[in-house]
Amino acid sequence: MTRETADLTEDETLAIPAIAAVPEDLEDMALEDDYGLAPEYVEMVIDAADRGDSERLRELLGALHPADVADLMGFLTADYREEVIEHLNPEDLAEVLSELDTNLREEVLESVPSATLAKALEELDSDDAADVIDDLEDDKRGEVLAAMPDAERAAIETTLSYGDETAGRLMQREVLAAPQFWTVGQTIDHVRSAGDELPELFFDVYIVDPSYKPVGGAPISRLLRAPRETLLADLMEPVTEIPVTMDQEDVAFIFDKYHLISAPVVDTGGRLVGQITVDDVVGVIQEEAEEDILALAGGSDAGRDAGVIDIVRSRLPWLLLNLVTEAVAVSAIAFFQDEIAKLVALAVLMPIVSSLGGNAGTQTLAVAVRALAARELSSANAWRVIRREATVGAVNGVTLALVMGFATFIFYHNQPHAFRLAIVVGLALVANIVTAAIGGILAPLALEKMGRDPAVSSSVFVTFLTDFMGFFAVLTIAALILL
Amino acid sequence: MTRETADLTEDETLAIPAIAAVPEDLEDMALEDDYGLAPEYVEMVIDAADRGDSERLRELLGALHPADVADLMGFLTADYREEVIEHLNPEDLAEVLSELDTNLREEVLESVPSATLAKALEELDSDDAADVIDDLEDDKRGEVLAAMPDAERAAIETTLSYGDETAGRLMQREVLAAPQFWTVGQTIDHVRSAGDELPELFFDVYIVDPSYKPVGGAPISRLLRAPRETLLADLMEPVTEIPVTMDQEDVAFIFDKYHLISAPVVDTGGRLVGQITVDDVVGVIQEEAEEDILALAGGSDAGRDAGVIDIVRSRLPWLLLNLVTEAVAVSAIAFFQDEIAKLVALAVLMPIVSSLGGNAGTQTLAVAVRALAARELSSANAWRVIRREATVGAVNGVTLALVMGFATFIFYHNQPHAFRLAIVVGLALVANIVTAAIGGILAPLALEKMGRDPAVSSSVFVTFLTDFMGFFAVLTIAALILL
Asked: What's the CA gap between A291 and A244, in Å, rounded?
């Protein structure tokens, strides 16, 4: 079967003559307006797989960018994924594997023979290849590495020797470096003859001293602009060196702050060992932002295609912790059972005070976590920000207290204690919203100071604080002035 | 006063001899380990400003990257900011202005004379200059534009004519374009002679047809690698064209998905009008992720240096909305006041059921919002994901119900209805967690389907749903089997 002739029976041809007459523009059909994969296209792939129509499947996959094939895999069930993988050519297979989420990749890798895999991975830059190898099970990893050329195996093993989520893992070892005394012309001639030593794409030339330490860099667009006889030493600017052990979150922060396109990575001796390019960093920025969102929500993402058990594992511990803190918070209510029995209105109003406090705390928390991640909150302005948050809490608290106090008075106006009930609720609300504001800023600041991730445990603490305070404030103030 | 001679009185020199003897490495002192600005450095700047020591101030500012000066401004109060601005040279001023947050920038711009500003902005690419101009008040905007050269004014006015947060605003008009029949050598010679028409940095050459429509592109590292006589037509690859009206969120998604470094922007006629580079997109990705975090928390970021009133305005509406929804939710409690008076334990246990439901709902919601933003959730897999979330809800719900039911039984074991109370709480918990899971996935899906931002209003709805369900389930089940 060739790719040129359609694999249709006569009946099928008759049934869908439009396809034969007007060539489909599969590429235009693949994506929706928001550049997500079109559900209809997923259906077409499933259809072709169901019919066992290899020709059509290859055609459909061929019209997709590898990133879209990876995306497609996420929309398919495991059986169809295996079918798709079998119909990819080796170059596309490598690209698709490097685009897949870890949990999908682990599953897909099981069905790819080691030899095919070794061949495919040679197409990738060392960082991407190492990423894929990292997801293999130990036996298979050995097999695949053994089937690769020595140089590439060594490169991948070096990359894997760096810690997870460090600059060493993000970097590619291929890099364009030149001594200061070279001219632009010499550098360009070197590039023309260098071939595979250079990365597939590069954006800067790093200028190194004789011990291979970076002393500067220049964007290659500046090389192109300069006369051939210009010395690199005259073109270069200072570069931001990334230590190979730096956490990827810091790498992303630096790229964002200084608008870097690529940066040299240096070992502990300060020698150039590779480069990180911004396209790798964009992925990290997305990842870290997602982690913050999910951590604030109390949980983590088990991944796109995770099973029920994995998802339960990622969420149940937080819910159990929440159960424990809530049990402590409601002990305030249990303590005042007699007061509630006397005045059930308290049981109605308490949850409102708690809930508003929780929301106000979450608002402050989200802003604080964001500001910490952007390094916009430090001891240089912590007191100013804390004072400001407390003031905002007071203003919001008083406003909400007036509204809720008034509503309470109206709702219970035919009861003798309506006015005092409104006062109780109003005072409790102010107390809880101010508490929420201060807790919402202090909790993440304290966690950051302790070297912990402020996004991860702040929300549990703030929720506990505002729930407890909501119950406790309503009930103690009621005990004092109402009952 | 020159920059070379220290502007110290004799006393000051005697008081701090170390500075004169050992040259400080200011650049090393400026940043902390996490690349945030060191609080001590902020202190040094405040000190120099307090002493009116212009020389020292210039020295301190000169050691900082413009992005770090912008960062510094965020840590200072308004008076000090004005002082700092006065001590920047025009080139740095332009860079610093383009790095500042909008609300800080608006304030700073008021104190910069129009002529200085016009001069500074000429240093920037058209997109960055337009960004700054956009923050000026109408009168001043006219003055500054009038003081600029015609060509630059026209470029900025064109940029400003595109909608906020569109590709047109992100793009720079300067771009390297060449016809298909040019060779690599011709292209490089063109770059060497073109000068200011080209952007300061560029990463791709776009190949255009005679009507200036892009037909392909090639990274300049590939130009460098190829022999001079190679035709551009033989080097080029398909490019992803960005329509000038595209939303910046979609632009960011495409850059991330296809690992783009730069992309051509085309007008409605398909003609090349500019390019977007990845460094602009990194900022957008950060921005959009922050918006999602803050929207999920119910609020928006009033900005780093916002006053109390602005912050209150960004948060109070959400709290008032929350007050209304809570009032509706607790009406379930008000309806069952007699049951609660009979059995106050219900008032103790209800908030736990509500709170756990709220947390479970938020977990699902955060994952769903993230998946929607990544285009990983569409009608192609919606039912599968909904079924999975419901199953996860059931598993988590049953587990939590067993734990909480057992704890309830132990806590109330000396009361006659302890066992039935445990059953009530357990059943209510399962009902609420399953409701939370389904609501947490359906709410964002429905909002997305309606073309709304799923992050913005989902959490209000899910919180209302789980609070109401928490109260309602406990009380109705109690009314049925307990009372």
From this structure: 23
